[in-house]
Design goal:
Blueprint lengths: L1 E2 L3 H23 L22 H10 L7 H34 L6 H22 L4 H24 L1 E2 L11 H33 L22 H4 L17 H30 L8 H30 L4 H30 L2 H6 L1
Helix pairs in contact: 1-3, 1-5, 1-10, 3-4, 4-5, 5-6, 5-10, 6-8, 6-10, 8-9, 9-10
InterPro entries: COX15/CtaA_fam, COX15/CtaA_HemeA_synthase
Pathway: Porphyrin-containing compound metabolism
Pfam family, one: COX15-CtaA
Length: about 350
Amino acid sequence: MRVKAGYWLVLFSTALAALVVILGAYTRLVDAGLGCPDWPGCYGFLTVPESSVDVAKANLRFPETPVESAKGWPEMIHRYLAGTLGLFILMIAVVAFRQNKQDNSYPIKLPFFLLVLVVIQAAFGMWTVTLKLWPQVVLAHLIGGFTTLSLLFLLLLRLRVSRENTSQQNNSKSYASNLFKYKVLARIGLVIVVIQIMLGGWTSSNYAAIACMDFPTCHDSYWPEMDFSQGFNIFQQIGPNYLGGVMDSNARTAIHMAHRIGAVITALFLCYMCFSLMRVKLENLEKVNQQYINNWAITILSILIVQLSLGISNIVWFIPLPVAVAHNACGALLLISLVGLNYQLYKIGKASPILQRSI
């Protein structure tokens, strides 16, 4: 595999972004989101105060939130890792700027968009703390993290000089029509996964994961009493401390059930999409391209099975921390797999003159 300049830097940054996303989930799940009540420091220090003198000073500054080192460290490690990721993305932008001067095909817009995104993410990280885990901001911060990871992965794919066959494409109308159909399916699959991740983020930020602790029923009913209007009220008042959530049981049940229904829709659609993609070999795709598409389809199906198992395990075993963190990590894997599949189909379609005209 040949790669362009900056590939290994982007690869490391993608791995770091995945670590930041996973650690962010861990921080949220152990209720450490307010482990440091100020930002960017922690009780006015660069790290979590540990000595008795520093702890006394910290408690004097923030008497309502006394120091808890076990919650402070996950938050501060997450902040420092996120800051390091920001520096790496800055380096990626510098490399892209220099390379684009020599080769105008080198990606330039995506690295600079990532740079803007990571600055916005820093702002949401600050508001997550200063607005005391306001669910809207927590959700936006989570989506921003997943977006950063996905775009870094997309950039990674663009810096590969891979061996896909783009020189001997089948230019028949049936080929173009089928490829267009699968591109549409893949895009819909990506949108569905994004919506499901947002529902998961809303579930987590409102502490609704424990709203139903039986499966497949909820409160011994397939359609329990729910309050969707409150559960999805995005105009919640800013002001209270949202640690632990403020919604009543019916509202949280509505959020939880929406996430379950979303999981069913996601699973059904992705299964249909993947099995349809694996049948595409009947429609004259070149062997190399067929292999790539099959690999992505199998990967997505495998991650989907694991993700559904983790989701059910969360309910049956009362949200064990390792399983809950893995559920977040699998969500990120599923998302970047859909990004990879869409990019693969885009590359194949780009080489088809008939498909280009049909679009």
